[in-house]
Design goal:
single chain; 66 residues; mainly beta; 5-stranded mixed β-sheet; Beta-grasp_dom_sf; ThiS/MoaD-like; Sulfur carrier protein ThiS
């Protein structure tokens, strides 16, 4: 199925969870947030939240510094 990930179309497996997507993308940053549509998804739901065809997903990582 196709989703839009950070503004770019991406092909992913059907019914993929957010946690599976994060693993597939190789994101290892300790601090990141995921929004689907305009809703920020709580980390407690990453294992159970299943993406649907056409979902718009934004993944933002936080970097410290100064």
């Amino acid at each position: 199925m196709k989703i839009v990930l950070n503004g770019e179309e991406k092909e992913v497996k059907e019914n993929i969870t957010i946690q599976e997507l994060i693993k597939e993308l190789g994101i290892k940053a300790p601090n990141y947030a995921v929004a689907v549509g305009m809703e920020v998804i709580p980390k407690s739901e990453y294992q159970t939240y299943r993406l649907k065809e056409g979902d718009r997903v934004e993944i933002v990582t936080f970097v410290g510094g100064g």
